[in-house]
Amino acid sequence: MNKSNRKPRFELMYKAILSLQNEEECMKFFDDLCTVSELQAMEQRFHVAWLLNQGMIYNDILATTGASSATISRVKRSLEYGSDGYEIVFGNLMEESQEK
């Protein structure tokens, strides 16, 4: 989908996510917000993105995550041509791990 054709976003939801104080609060919020299958799909896509970012190959990602090749390809496209959201998050996570 062309990014300029997206429906308007309900920005308060994103502000609500940023207001969460820790992982426990975040998990509780997403448990309430999403169905089990929606949450599993998001977690799987993030796991795939993490592994692709680490340089893992498709077949190993498939075996590790159970994701379909279509999902892996879709995530790979997001990593390469998306809005850099994954890149921002991975950078933040690396920065956070170096501070510990």
Notes on the structure:
The structure is a single chain. The protein is mainly alpha-helical and 100 residues long. 73% of the residues lie in helices and 0% in strands.
* Shape verdict: globular
Average pLDDT confidence is 93
Number of helices: 6
SSE pattern: HHHHHH
Distance between the termini: 39 Å
The count of strands amounts to 0
Low-confidence stretches: none
Oligomer: single chain
What share of residues are in beta strands?
Answer: under 5%
Per-chain topology:
Blueprint: H1 11-18, H2 23-33, H3 36-53, H4 58-65, H5 69-81, H6 85-99
Helix pairs in contact: 3-5
How is this structure best summarized?
The protein is mostly helical and 100 residues long.
List its salient traits.
100 residues, mainly alpha, 6 helices, 73% helix, globular
